[in-house]
Structure formats: structure tokens, C-alpha cells
Amino acid sequence: MIGSLRGRISSKTPPQLTVEVGGVGYELEAPMSTFFHLPAVGQDVRLLTHFVVREDAQLLYGFATEDERRLFRSLLKVSGIGPKIGLALLSGISVEAFILCVQNQDVAALVRVPGIGRKTAERLLVEMRDRLKPSGEGGDSGVSAVVPGTSPSPEAEAFGALVALGYRPGEATRLLKAAGPGTHSTEELIRRALQSAARE
Q1: pLDDT tens by residue, 124-161
Q2: Hey, where are the domains in the chain?
Q3: Does domain 66-129 fall into CATH 3.40.50.200?
Q4: CATH architecture for residues 4-63
Q5: What kind of architecture, by CATH, is found in domain 154-199?
């Protein structure tokens, strides 16, 4: 089992990136929530990983935080949910927002994530409800229902908002890049992205 990687980013094209460790290039796929925090190509990075072995492939997934990886692993335990849908969920909604969706049984919020239909959303809400137990209640050691102290980044929140508005993940990423460098609030990022879209 490969639990984490520390090395140099040699390439990155969402959702794929390659991290070179000791002369070996590891190909990974990562959710957009992780991509927003990646340093530039050529810089060092440390990612938590999840290794999937199938009959036709061996796949490695990378995550910036333990909360993301924990949620991803819990999602894979839900019937009918594979890595592709797991990445789509983490790209379209933050860990905190997903927890709130499950607690509130909010189907509407989940179906706004690309690739998530109503039946899949309903199954997720039913099966994840018991996995999201507050710390200390035992059960399936799934995702903690206690919202982490660090709030999602403005970029991740803006990405989720653009996806909710109907933009495809790739389009949302492009629009946010067009918003320009610098520190912006979530609202400012969304405003700049929408202005960029209007000019196209």
C-alpha cells in the first residue's frame, strides 16, 4: 500500500499529475480541491494517496488533506460508487459541504455535482448517513461529522459555486484561472470568473 508521496511535480493536467520520487514518476489523479493547492511544476509536494488495484489497471489517487482521502475511501464503500464518481464529488463539493448535505439529506445539492444523478444521490445520502458519526460514537470509522477547523479555500468554494451554476469542471477551472493571480475572496473570484465568461 502506498500511503503518501513526497517528490517533485513533473507535470499536471487536471485531473492528472505526475510526481517524481527518487527517479520514478508516479502518475496520480486528484480532485480539483487538491489541484487548487498544488505548487507549480518543478516544485516539491507531499500528497496522501489511495492505491486501487483492478484487473485491468493499477491506479493511484492523491489528496491534499486527510479529510479528503477519508471521505474518498468512505465513498468507495457505497455500492455503485467508484473512484471516478468519488473524484467528481470531491471536485464539485467540499468535505464540509458534503457532510452538511448528508446531515440535512439534501438531494438537490448533490445532483448539482456533474455525474451525480438523483438515484445515486439518494443512495449516497442513505449509505453515508451511518458513516458520518461524530467522533467517539464508534461505528464505521468513516468521515468525522465534526467540521474541521480549516475552512475550504476561496478557490474551492468558487469552483463549487461555478459547477452549481452549470459550468463543467474544466470550464470552471479555466474561468478561475482567467480571474487572475492574487488573493481574492470567494465572491470576488466568482464575479471575475463570470465577467470572463461574459466576455467570451
Answers
A1: 999 998 777 544 444 444 554 434 444 557 777 777 77
A2: 4-63, 66-129, 154-199
A3: no
A4: Beta Barrel (2.40)
A5: Orthogonal Bundle (1.10)
